[in-house]
Amino acid sequence: xxxxxxxxxxxxxxxxxxxxxxxxxxxxxxxxxxxxxxxxxxxxxxxxxxxxxxxxxxxxxxxxxxxxxxxxxxxxxxxxxxxxxxxxxxxxxxxxxxxxxxxxxxxxxxxxxxxxxxxxxxxxxxxxxxxxxxxxxxxxxxxxxxxxxxxxxxxxxxxxxxxxxxxxxxxxxxxxxxxxxxxxxxxxxxxxxxxxxxxxxxxxxxxxxxxxxxxxxxxxxxxxxxxxxxxxxxxxxxxxxxxxxxxxxxxxxxxxxxxxxxxxxxxxxxxxxxxxxxxxxxxxxxxxxxxxxxxxxxxxxxxxxxxxxxxxxxxxxxxxxxxxxxxxxxxxxxxxxxxxxxxxxxxxxxxxxxxxxxxxxxxxxxxxxxxxxxxxxxxxxxxxxxxxxxxxxxxxxxxxxxxxxxxxxxxxxxxxxxxxxxxxxxxxxxxxxxxxxxxxxxxxxxxxxxxxxxxxxxxxxxxxxxxxxxxxxxxxxxxxxxxxxxxxxxxxxxxxxxxxxxxxxxxxxxxxxxxxxxxxxxxxxxxxxxxxxxxxxxxxxxxxxxxxxxxxxxxxxxxxxxxxxxxxxxxxxxxxxxxxxxxxxxxxxxxxxxxxxxxxxxxxxxxxxxxxxxxxxxxxxxxxxxxxxxxxxxxxxxxxxxxxxxxxxxxxxxxxxxxxxxxxxxxxxxxxxxxxxxxxxxxxxxxxxxxxxxxxxxxxxxxxxxxxxxxxxxxxxxxxxxxxxxxxxxxxxxxxxxxxxxxxxxxxxxxxxxxxxxxxxxxxxxxxxxxxxxxxxxxxxxxxxxxxxxxxxxxxxxxxxxxxxxxxxxxxxxxxxx
Length: 818
What we know:
- It is built from 28 helices and 30 strands.
- By secondary structure, the protein is an alpha+beta fold.
- A 7-stranded mixed beta sheet has the order 18-30-29-28-19-26-27, sandwiched between helices. It has a 6-stranded antiparallel beta sheet with strand order 10-9-11-17-12-15, with no helix packed on it. A 6-stranded antiparallel beta sheet has the order 20-25-24-23-22-21, with helices on both faces.
- The radius of gyration is 36 Å and the shape is elongated.
């Protein structure tokens, strides 16, 4: 079983590693991955060996909280007569799989229910209540608990920062006033002047630092708890550093009261206060910026309308979206959004699907056409039957794909993951060793050693390491979804930028996959439209794909079909028909030769058409050659442009097809293919991909996903194109919502940009810690330079994680290939 849990209480990458470690230790857990940026744990486990409560308990024991992502609803319950009724409703709803909590208030007749929307729907809850003999009526729309929690958290952090700032500024003025006051004419009042009244000076600082310590109490409770549980995190570093400064300040005050007034100049309270203030500000900026990295998912989630107009008992009823069921008939007026996926049963309209596919041109919809939920009805009023609802809709599948991708890890993050697991204990060791070395071997004072100890603890930033990869993946995959490019995992995102060869399936990928009439060549005085009319009338009864394309060609020209007096199929050759007392033969060259019909001057034309990848079909009327109709699978509008773009990116392009070499070469010539793999049977496509990989190349396969599944799975990256609503294609790593080949270079470019962004983030995170920690250890001071102040160290640390997030947000400016 696979489950996503929201983890509360994590403050850095070390916390994420601790949650992973304790989860993996449980017997029955197969895999556990924590995404620090989304604060989610993706866990795979054997239900027979371990349960969700066991996993929650292990995580809580480690000092964190695991919660199931839930929706909350308030329902009005009718028919209750006593408290026993309320208990019955609680009991029947709690029995439902997916219900997390259920509380009935008998006085207000309200049921408050928390549930997992992926497992149970409101309609299921209502049915269970009705079965028990009561009636549930909807009170209000669902609440996005996660959003509310995040907003609350951001407000609380901001409040704590303001409180810390209010007390830290006067504390800084008191502490530094006697040093910088004289040049600017500032003087401390006599009663707190350290030279006149050192005791009051010390007590005033203690009074000002205490509210700041209380505002930052979470650093101490979480930090020391993690330390004692042998899973130290960033909070542990802050807690140790500020506690050391605070305790030293208390010790100094005791010394002042004993008469050692020199201690008044080394109280260190301002360091503790300003460190907490700056780290709190950093946490606030981090929380706000982290929220922006997940905007793409929120945008997708907000696409679907909240209600639908459903026909119930021949009346139009406004129904909450979660209560729409398969088979319901839905009415959508112009300008409204389609609530769920379905099929048009009445009306004609054009639909804007750009929010899902990136395709800006509205799509015409007629009876029998498919509807994608969340698309916008432009001009006609339609009725359509719901075919997919809830978690089965295209939008829900896209959201799941994007969420899974954002929760996955890229191989590039492995090094950062390993380091962040050992980072905090190593930093604590370095801080202690540096302080002791300066005190015992450097001949420095205890105050100097304390400065080193605090600076090393405070400057180290495991957050930057933990955020470097997931934030870039979140923004990158979200941006892809915006343009209809769905990247399924971090691994796919990373591998895509290494692709050196792309293999395109021909039919339906490079070409439209629907043969069209391309040429009508006439002889012996017959008009082109008359020839097409006779051929289409003859083929009307045929089921041959080429015949269908001739019929369609005549329909497009609005030609009238003539009545058939006789129809005879000649297997492998063509057909023989009688129209208006004319005997008509329509078929291949072999049929004409067999019936001794002279091809006249058309043989040369026929060869020319065949060399262009077209299929010539001969028409003879009353044993005399009348002309040729050529049919071909036409190349998609953007195929040539996309292949040119890939060439510019240094990628070799191959084409794989079951067609003969001549047809394949004709198509390849039109679009600029480098390598042709012709006459390949569907089952052999995967072997062709394997052969290319054997040459040491990273290969991507682009197909329509119907008979290409084995090749898509074999390739380093499988790209399913034009999948429309079938977004859950298992064999592909990247799903392109549109049939536009320009999305292939867009996917590769997005991968390159995201990986570059991750590398920049990792370089900054590693570089910052590699340079910052030695400076805090006093390396510069050793060579006559300055000693790093713990306050500067705290500011640098706060800036470090925020800068990584801001860099990841630059990916929001990504534009698709043109």
